[in-house]
Amino acid sequence: MSAATATAVAPAPATRTGAEMIWEVLVQEGVEVVFGYPGGAIMPAYDALPRYPVRHVLVRHEQGAAHMADGYARASGKVGVAVATSGPGATNLVTGIATAMLDSVPVVFITGQVSSALLGSDAFQETDVTGVTLPITKHNWLVTRAEDIGPVLREAFAVAKSGRPGPVLVDITKDAQQASCAFDPADRRVARPPRPRPARGATADALARAVALIDRAERPLILAGHGIVAAGAAAELAAFVARTGVPVASTLLGLGGFPATDPRALGMMGMHGEAWVNRAVQDADLLIALGMRFDDRVTGNLATFAPRARKIHVDLDPSEIGKNVAVDVAIVDDVRQVLAALTPRCRPADRAAWMAAIEAGKGDSAVRDIQQLPDTGKLHAAHVLHDLWRLTEGRAVVVTDVGQHQMWEAQYYKHDHPRGLVTSGGLGTMGFALPAAIGARFARPDAEVWVVAGDGGFQMTAAELSTCAQEDLKVNIAIINNGYLGMVRQWQELFYGGRYVATPMRSPDFVKLAEAHGLTGLRVTRRADVAGAVAAARAAAGTVVIDFRVQAEDSVYPMVPSGADLGDMIRRPLKSRLIETGADDELTEEPPR
Amino acid sequence: MTAPGKPRLRTLVATVEDVPGVLNRVASLFRRRNYNIASLTVGASEVPGLSRLTVVVSCDDATAARLEANLWKLVDVVAVDELAAADVVERDLALIKVRADHLQRAAVVQAAELFAARVVDVAPTELTIEIAAPRQRIDDLRAVLEPFGVIAMVRTGAVAMARAGVTAAADLPPSRAASGA
Ligand SMILES: Cc1ncc(C[n+]2csc(CCOP(=O)(O)OP(=O)(O)O)c2C)c(N)n1
Ligand SMILES: [Mg+2]
């Protein structure tokens, strides 16, 4: 191709349609797969697609396309791309765009728009999409001329992945797609080059103050967030911990940024963090917050959060500094570079006394752990997740939905590798898992991909099973089926007098649902059968759905009630009718109720 | 010296690209982040293609720093600066329509003159005063006119720039602002 261009044997045509320009730029940007759904205003773009080496995955709902592009980006670290038509196609993307926005995921959304002459006339399928998505994108553009498509799309990719990443949207009118413009294959112009921003960066003074705090601390704790994963800083974090001996607590999206099986890994902190982890946060005399934003799910009551700790906050985004928690040292820079700079400056230490104190803080936690309870023959979600971790040797890419199963996964599947967990943290979007896993499938063709979803959330985007079938994809799907919108039921049990309003949920027969799509379905009701089903799923060539019929009224512990002090946890009762007798419900081979 | 934690009015000046929707993006940011805006004005700058925006907002120091950081995150923003109270030239323009019959007229005109305001429109029982001044002076004039009977008032909101001889990021010519891109 380049040789042909160089020798001018096959001169490239000097013009392209706007529709062709879309794909030219995507190919330039290294895009191999896009997720989308056609419609009138985007038809010119679809018509040009077969001429380009880009795979298109036809989704069943545009929300699915958005989550797929998001899952692709989270699992690969590259920019994901989703395509939709104007009006309803674009508005169906909205939940997916907001999901990517809150978790800082780089996705380029491309939507068709009515022809420019019709803009503002309430034309058929006209929606003000740049208006609708303004607060949930990093930036968006309306393009009305073919010659602007190339430069704007290149700028869109640059904006999506630069700095703190995020979703962007390019709305392209139909006439812009149909018109022609000059084309130069060497042209890499962006609409506007990035404007300079104030140089922040780690100053020598801030680094020195951070080092002094770290060296002097007796009970330091790292709070590792999504920024570790996003910045590719896992190796630098491991080196920092190896030298300084500081233990690591993770946010939900930080899991995998530091190996969960490392002795210094404490696991997840926050609302459903282990009791001793939250206690360590409250007891610490120094918090080193790395690429995390002190979300309310992580801090609990801000007034009593880590009252004894000085705080160092490293984040790329200056607007995060001091947003929720006042800090002593703020370093606005790439966390990878900051860690690389800090490590050699810090004094080597083993923190044996502090580690021993944290260990002692575990107290009877192990006894309360459901893994330790005798096998009553009943199936607990925690069993499923623990066994799944063991059987996949912690190496799967696990994509979780939102609810109890998401928290159990975070507690029991020990992630040792970055991008091994894909989950919607900031927005908590039910229906995320299956489509995001399809995206992850394309991002990581060699990895084993597991969906862990609840019976409720799975049904929100279950139509994407059909996408798995049509695209011949292999995804393993574990439905943690408790017959309830479990997380809401748990809140009703604890805070609403046990009134289960609108949370019991009747589901279709998931085995038959899989089979109706030409996929494999399995059902598991006893712990003894977990391993066999997981092995069968792994061995199967195509997508497999496993319906795990777990205890209906199990709850996630510990739990810090919303807005309560982080040290104020509800623990799993040591004596529980459920655990001792499994008496809350009868498991049958039939769908519940 | 104000305490860092206390909210006070402050003036930010931003240079932004003159593209459709830019005012919408800035306003959306303020609304979304729950900032308390006293005024927001936008108009042409000395450079074609760039507009200058003045926003007066009530917040504490930390919130102001975050607001500035949030403005920098907008792709259409070229430069942002909070102007220190001592370094700012600030003007608000107001038109105030006051009751003034033949008995009151002289007193109303005299009040206007005390504020270096001008009478720009006169009718038998009312007149309209124009004043361009810092915010507080307009508030003061209004208070003085109130007993006569203020019928209507319209204000532009503050426009501001760094005083002559003081350099502000938002003043930088775009050739310099864009260098190093
Ligand atoms: C789109 C959406 N709607 C509602 C909620 C509120 N919500 C959070 S968890 C949950 C229950 C999830 O039930 P299920 O998918 O069965 O998972 P479980 O908690 O039972 O494991 C609900 C309704 C949400 N997070 N997302
Ligand atoms: Mg459920």
Quick gist of this model?
Chain A is an alpha/beta fold.
Feature tags:
heterodimer; A: alpha/beta; Rossmann fold; 3 domains; globular; disordered C terminus; B: Alpha-Beta Plaits; Alpha-Beta Plaits; 2 domains; 5-stranded antiparallel β-sheet; 4-stranded antiparallel β-sheet; 9 strands; 28% helix; binds thiamine diphosphate; binds magnesium ion
Spans of chain B with pLDDT under 50 lasting ≥5 residues? 174-181
Instruction: Give me the CATH superfamily of the largest domain in chain A.
Output: Thiamin diphosphate (ThDP)-binding fold, Pyr/PP domains
Q: Do you know the CATH topology of the largest domain in chain A?
A: Rossmann fold
CATH superfamily descriptor of the largest domain in chain B = ACT domain
Number of domains of chain B: 2
Number of discrete domains of chain A: 3
Report the CATH C-level class of the largest domain in chain B: Alpha Beta
Strand content of chain B: 35-45%
Helix fraction of chain B, binned, reads 25-40%
Reported by name, the CATH topology of the largest domain in chain B is: Alpha-Beta Plaits
What is the count of DSSP helices of chain B, taking H or I runs of 4+ residues?
5
CATH class of the largest domain in chain A: Alpha Beta
Choose one word for the global shape of chain A: globular
| Shape verdict of chain B | elongated
| Oligomer kind | heterodimer
Using the 3D structure, state the CATH architecture of the largest domain in chain A: 3-Layer(aba) Sandwich
Structure description:
The complex is a heterodimer of chains A (593) and B (181). Chain A folds into 3 domains: 3-182, Rossmann fold; 204-362, Rossmann fold, CATH 3.40.50; 370-581, Rossmann fold. In chain A, 37% of the residues lie in helices and 16% in strands. Chain A has 593 residues and is an alpha/beta fold. The longest helix of chain A has 16 residues, at 146-161. In chain A, helix 8 (146-161) links the parallel strand 6 and strand 7. With 181 residues, chain B is α+β, with helices and mostly antiparallel strands. Chain B folds into 2 domains: 8-87 and 162-176, Alpha-Beta Plaits, CATH 3.30.70.260; 89-159, 2-Layer Sandwich (Alpha-Beta Plaits). Helix content of chain B is 28%, strand content 39%. Chain B has 5 helices and 9 strands; from the N terminus they run E-H-E-E-H-E-E-H-E-E-H-E-E-H. In chain B, strands 5, 6, 7, 8 and 9 form a 5-stranded antiparallel beta sheet that branches. A 4-stranded antiparallel beta sheet of chain B has the order 2-3-1-4. Chain B is elongated. Classes of the chains: A alpha/beta (593), B alpha+beta (181). Chains A and B meet through loops of A and helix 1 and helix 2 of B. Bound molecules: thiamine diphosphate and magnesium ion (MG). Residues 454-456, 482, 484-486 of chain A line the site of magnesium ion (MG). Magnesium ion binds next to helix 21 of chain A.
